[in-house]
Design brief:
alpha/beta, TIM Barrel, binds fe (ii) ion, Urease, subunit C, domain 1, four-stranded mixed beta sheet, about 35% helix
Length: about 425
């Protein structure tokens, strides 16, 4: 038989060397020395071949808008939300589409083949939703885009938000979102969690909430989210994004909470670039780090992924679309510099988010024929160097190639 594509001699993340054959968009074989012919052979000898990088927490309706209509002078989450309130009434549908596609191209060149983006559904013009539905269609077959119906100002705090979430889901947005800590009261927050879970159960959807993105140790909506996940039978379909209040919670309380999260099979999504810059802002010294308890959640068997959250938008002036930057920051903030922990950090931008998003990615026969060849040998080297992604393959098609730059430097005699 003739394969579509063979990637030869690559090193898999576990260090084994194997050829990978792809046929009809799927991985057909992963084994050393495949001799069957292929329409295209890619030499990856000695290079890391990885499953696709994935960003499971992003805001594509705001990306690359930095400075429009002004920059976030204080750098705080609250000014960012206020600034977004201004921007969303000014930006046109075409501008959102154009910025999003520019971003997708950049991210794809860096090996990102799937993104879960929250989309603010509260603007009555609905242009954010319509724009990102168009982007999802445009990039189909190259990148997977999952959209979360996100009421930025809460299900109940903003008039008509609940109806807008339903409208977005009816229009084809994939996932039920929310921001319970943004509601007026803790009781309203709990009600918002319950409503999101009920609607997801009724419609057979997943849930992904911005949950407890605060330094308040008493912000405990994650507890409600885990309990309601069990009550509605949504185990394995729910993610809690941020969970930064867990950083500040009482340790005894957390010793009860983490097993509950594990029991509910709620995934945790930490966003290290944003958590380390937005949380702890009101502290003097010592300043809290603000990221959720990543190693402890992992130790309890919770699926924990890293997301990017923001690139050049009202909340964050930096960001490059490179999930290796995100994992690099994440492992530093979480003090995960042990060998196994660094390998785990790499999985948190590949395997873990694939599980969160329900994607059939992985370097195994039968999985989707999507992979990345990096200009390095191991996952730890990838995190250290954040090297060029030489070849990016999506469902059996090469979608990006980058030639590593030649370095001309004086030699030491
Ligand atoms: Fe977010």
């Amino acid at each position: 038989m003739t394969f579509e594509l063979i990637v030869k001699g690559g090193l898999l993340p576990d260090g084994t060397q194997a050829d990978i054959a792809i046929s009809a968009g799927r991985i057909a074989a992963v084994e050393p020395g495949i001799t069957a012919p292929a329409r295209e052979v890619i030499d990856a000898t000695g290079k890391l071949v990885s499953p696709p990088l994935i960003d499971c927490h992003f805001h594509m309706d705001a990306t690359l808008s930095y400075g429009t209509p002004r920059v976030n002078a204080s750098g705080t989450l609250l000014e960012g939300i206020a600034l977004w309130g201004e921007l969303k009434t000014l930006q046109t549908r075409d501008e959102i589409v154009s910025r999003a596609l520019t971003y997708c191209r950049e991210a794809m060149g860096k090996g990102v083949l799937a993104i879960r983006s929250h989309v603010d559904v509260t603007d009555k013009s609905f242009r954010t939703v319509e724009a990102l539905l168009e982007v999802r269609e445009t990039i189909k077959g190259k990148m997977d885009l999952q959209l979360v119906a996100f009421p930025q100002d809460g299900w109940f705090r903003a008039a008509g938000a609940e109806a807008q979430v339903i409208r977005a889901l009816d229009a084809g947005v994939d996932i039920v979102g929310g921001i319970p800590h943004g509601e007026r009261t803790m009781a309203d927050g709990a009600a918002a969690v319950r409503t999101a879970c009920r609607i997801a159960a009724e419609r057979g959807l997943m849930v992904d909430l911005h949950c407890d993105e605060t330094d308040d140790p008493l912000s405990r909506h994650i507890e409600t989210l885990a309990a309601e996940t069990i009550a509605f039978g949504l185990q394995g379909r729910v993610a809690g994004s941020h969970l930064t209040s867990m950083h500040s919670m009482d340790n005894y309380y957390v010793s009860k909470l983490i097993p509950l999260i594990a029991e509910a099979r709620v995934a945790a999504i930490a966003n290290p670039l944003i958590n380390i810059t937005l949380q702890g802002r009101a502290d003097t010294y010592p300043k809290r780090r603000g990221m959720t308890r990543v190693p402890e959640l992992l130790a309890a068997g919770v699926n924990v992924a890293f997301g990017q959250d923001c690139v050049m938008d009202p909340w964050y002036p930096l960001g490059s679309g490179d999930m290796l930057d995100v994992a690099h920051m994440g492992l530093h903030v979480a003090l995960m510099t042990g060998t196994e922990q660094m390998n785990r950090a790499f999985q948190m931008i590949t395997e873990a988010p694939a599980q969160v998003m329900g994607l059939d990615f992985g370097l195994r026969p039968g999985a989707r024929g999507s992979l990345v060849v990096l200009d390095c040998a191991t996952p730890i080297e990838a995190l250290r160097l954040r090297p060029v992604r030489k070849v990016v393959i999506s469902d059996g098609k090469v979608v990006a190639r980058t030639t590593p730059p030649a370095v001309n430097a004086d030699q030491f005699a």
